[in-house]
Structure formats: C-alpha cells, structure tokens
Design goal:
Number of domains: 4
Helix content: 55-70%
Radius of gyration: 27 Å
Strand content: 5-15%
Distance between the termini: 67 Å
Number of helices: 25
Largest sheet: 5 strands, antiparallel
C-alpha cells in the first residue's frame, strides 16, 4: 500500500488477492491519510479513529462513510488509474442515502459532513430540509413536536449565512430530528378514504373529539383538491384555537409547520400536515384542567364577538398592562378584556404579553433554576414569548373570535409564568446600564462566558437588528447540553428577532441574552427521580 498523486488528487494504491485498487487517500471522516494506516490484504484501517474500508470498493465496514474508489487497469506491468469525478447531480444522489443513514443513527459528524457536501454540490437548503423532514417527521411518537418547530426556525436562520456556513443551522435542525426519531419506525397507518367534500367544521370537530381517522380523512380530501395554503392554514389555526393545547404548544406547532409549508414544495405538505394533525388530536386540553377552569369560564362568558368589532384607538397602555400582567396575583383576564374594550387591539395586547414575559425573564431568580424541589425553570418563561409570537402570527392570518381566544390564553400563560415569583419572591437588583460593544463578538463572548449582566447591557446598548442577528448566532453555538434546551434557545432567538421590531423595544433581546448567558438546568434526570420518589412515597402530584 502506498500514497500517490494523480494531478492534484491524493490516492492510496493497495494490492489485494483480487488485484490492485485505488482509493482517495483522505479518510472521509476527518481527512487523515489512509496510506499511513494499516492494510491486512483486504481492509484498510485509518489509524486515527479505527475506521475500516474494503480496498476493493471503498465500502466502510467500521465507521460512517465510504471512501471514493477509482478504476484501475494494469497494462504491461504499469498501473493506470482513472479518476472518477461525478457531476454535482451524481454526487447529490450519492449523498442523500448517506445523510439518511447518518440521521437514522444520529451520527452528528456524518450529518454535518453530508450536509456540507450537499451544499457544496448545489443542493438548496430547502431541498435538503424537505428530504430530511419526509424521512423523519413520520417517526415522531405523537406527531410534530419541538424537533419540527426547531427545523422551521433553523431553516429561517439559513438566510443569515452564506455558502457552506448554512450547514450550521441545518445540522442543528437535523440533529434534533435525529435524536427524537432514532430507532422509531415510520408511522404505518394508511391514509383513510377522503371525505366526500372537505369541510373545515368537520375537521375541527374531529380534532375536538380526538377522532384521528376522521381528521385525516378531511385533510386528505383538502389535499386531494389542492386546497390553497391560506385556507388550509385557517383550518389548522381554528382547530388549535379551541383550547390551550398542550400547554400552548399546539398553536406554536401550527405556526412552525406552516412556516415550513410556505417554503417547501408540495410533496412534503402531506407529511407535515398529517403529523401536525396527529399532534393536535393527541394534545392535552390545558384549559380544562382545574387551575385554568376559572379563566376558561370567564372567556366563555365574555362577548368576544363584540370585542372583535371594537375599533383600535389611540390607547397607549402597553407598558402599564405589561406591568399589571407581571405583578398580577390572579389571572389578569379582566385587565385584558378592559384593554380590548378600550381599543387596544389584539396586536398591542400581545405586545404587552411579550414585554411581560421579557420582564419576567430579566428578573428570574437564578437560584430557582437548580432547585430540584421546584419544577419551574427558564423554559416556562421563554414559552410566554414564543406563544405570544404564535398568537400574533395566527391573528394576522386569521383574525377571528378564535384567535382572540389565543391572545387571552397568552395573557394567562404570562400570569402562570409567575409561579416562581409568587412562591419564592424576586431578588431586587440594580438596573443594568446599556453599553456599546466594540464588535458583535462581545455579545457572543458574554453569552458563551456566562456573563448575564454584561450580555443584557450589550443587548440593550446596540443596534437591535445587529443584536438580533448575534442572538440567533449564539443560539446555534451549542449553548445547551440537551436537545430540549437547545430547541428552546433556537426558538426563543428566532422569536425575539421577529418580535423586538414589532414591540419597538430591546427588552425581548435583553431577556433572551440573559437566558442564554445564565446557568440553567439542562438535564432533568435528577429532578425526575426526585419527583418520582416523592410521588411513590406520598401519591401526591408535584406542587404547581
């Protein structure tokens, strides 16, 4: 076995019992020279990480990826090698199965390399995302979840990167999809016979009744007649607005799936919408739980139709309403009703919720986060901002009584995020003074270096658009040790980048910066054990 060069291509030539073979000398893992490895007459071993390749055809028998193999002829004792240089299209076709194998095994290195290579050979981020979603989303346990939401946000973030650098947001998304679907089979239920005519009311009723077959039959009928995306979107927004589904995640998943639908070709729509239907059918109806029944009763008794008809006015109570929500000791639904009756409008009500959530994040006690006796944490507060963003998205696409209800659910959620404040109190602290950066890297370093006060000061003291882009970048830099926290980092970063300009405030950016830079519980094994032991001993559920 020896290394040779053919033009600018480095090869390793090896003789086996079957003949002479020529392969790329660079191990596809990290480029280590195969010629410096071991050869037993059949297998070439890369000494760096013990990957093994068949000399005859380059197939990897231990490791993750094959190595390119080239044709060899021997004439009159001389060896002639023909370098095989596939076209971009041929290379993409070779890489798709490799990426799918990497995702199936959750090999992040392979996912990252194949994504980078696909981009290098002309694949568009949307094409790569569509292929991966088709292969993974149908493997989720209960329909679309955080992994699909993160995929939507990561795809949106690719617009902030050029060329191969777009592999970073894409690989974060694919890693999340791989982690949550690894080892799970594709959902095998056949699509039911389509309904005679697509009917939005029957679709919503099927979701309400947890009748998955009927809901999918209605969806299939809508897809078969090529229903416009705008109308399909209204179907799902209405269905998700009947309840506070899965603690608010139902509305967020509708938003994120349709952000994907709007960017991806129609062949992925049935997969995404089918799994979104599964998620909505399986969702918890939180507004039916005891602690939320009073709020639901108030909403049922309110004249939401009349509020829908109230014209927006010069109402300027956003700041006072956000403070009222943050400091409320009872669900402040009355404050929200009064604001809408006074002409605040749903948009400004949701801005007040967004600012309330931001203020809550900025004053959250860091010692609460690692208290294993307490089941509250950062993610409960970030959810306020991302839910307000989803409610605003729904209102803009389908203003109705249903989406007003989502806005009130957002108010309740902002109140509910104060559980730790009401239980433990808040820590008085001096306001952080805004400061200028020398470069955006100062904010990145404050986040990575776990300096929350500095991160807040920099977020408040610089151009909001640049801060938003930097926070999105920070969210992609492995700031979490678990998928679920990483998903929330990315989701919150995308949310505040969109919402801060709407609110006309840097508070959401500062809140996200503090969350990213602060200590937090990132694995939940110990907390789950503590809760399990307490439950087994007492039979009492955890305190809410």
């Amino acid at each position: 076995m020896k290394a040779v060069s053919v033009g600018d291509r480095r090869l390793v030539v090896a003789r086996s019992a079957e003949g002479i073979h020529a392969l790329d000398n660079a191990c596809p893992h990290q480029g280590y020279g195969l010629a410096t490895g071991a050869f037993d007459g059949e297998m070439i071993t890369c000494q760096w990480h013990n990957w093994k390749f068949r000399a005859a055809d380059g197939v990897c028998v231990m490791g993750e990826e094959d190595v390119a193999c080239h044709s060899v002829e021997v004439q009159d004792g001389e060896v002639f090698v023909t370098i095989e240089v596939p076209s971009d299209e041929e290379e993409r076709e070779r890489l798709w199965p490799s990426l799918e194998r990497g995702i199936a095994r959750n090999y992040v290195g392979q996912i990252a390399r194949d994504t980078s290579r696909l981009l290098a050979h002309g694949a568009a981020p949307t094409d790569i995302m569509a292929r991966v979603l088709i292969d993974t989303v149908q493997r989720t346990e209960w329909g679309t979840g955080h992994e699909t939401a993160m995929a939507a946000d990561a795809l949106a973030m690719t617009s902030g990167y050029d060329g191969l650098d777009r592999a970073l947001p894409l690989t974060q998304a694919f890693s999340g999809l791989a982690e949550t679907t690894r080892g799970r089979p594709i959902r095998r239920e056949a699509w039911p016979k389509p309904a005679a005519q697509p009917d939005q009311d029957r679709f919503a009723a099927a979701i309400e009744n947890e009748d998955l077959e009927q809901a999918r039959a209605q969806l299939r009928s809508a897809l078969d007649c090529s229903m416009p995306i705008d109308e399909l979107r209204r179907w799902f927004i209405t269905a998700a607005s009947q309840h506070h589904l899965s603690y608010g995640h139902g509305a967020i998943y509708v938003q994120k799936v349709f952000e994907l639908v709007e960017r991806l070709d129609r062949d992925v729509h049935p997969v995404l919408l089918g799994e979104l239907t599964v998620a909505l059918v399986n969702s918890t109806r939180e507004d039916l739980l005891p602690y939320m029944r009073k709020t639901r009763r108030v909403l049922d008794e309110a004249n939401l139709e009349a509020l829908l008809a109230v014209p927006t006015s010069e109402w300027d109570g956003i700041e006072a309403l956000s403070d009222g929500i943050v400091d409320a000791v009872e669900p402040p639904i009355g404050l929200a009703l009064e604001a809408l009756a006074a002409g605040a409008g749903v948009e400004r009500l949701l801005t007040a919720v967004l600012l309330a959530g931001s203020k809550r994040l900025l004053r959250h006690r860091l010692d609460v986060e690692t208290d294993l006796d307490n089941d509250f944490g950062w993610l409960d507060i970030t959810h306020v901002l991302t839910y307000a963003n989803a409610a605003r998205w729904a209102w803009r696409h389908a203003p109705s009584v249903d989406t007003i209800r989502l806005a009130f659910f957002a108010v309740w959620l902002a109140y509910d995020s104060g559980r730790a404040d009401r239980r433990f109190g808040t820590i008085a602290s001096s306001p952080v003074e805004p400061c200028r950066w020398d470069a955006p890297e100062d904010l990145l370093n404050a986040v990575i270096g776990a300096q929350p006060d500095k991160a807040v000061a920099l977020a408040l003291g610089n151009d909001p658009l640049e801060v938003a882009a930097t926070i999105e970048q920070a969210s992609l830099l492995d700031g979490a040790g678990s998928f679920i926290v990483q998903a929330h980092l990315i989701k919150l970063a995308r949310c505040v980048a969109v919402e801060a300009p709407v609110a006309g405030s840097s508070l959401p950016l500062a809140a996200a910066a503090r969350f990213m830079a602060s200590p937090r519980l990132e694995r939940f094994v110990a907390r789950n054990v503590q809760e399990a032991v307490a439950f087994v001993r007492s039979g009492v559920p955890p305190k809410r």
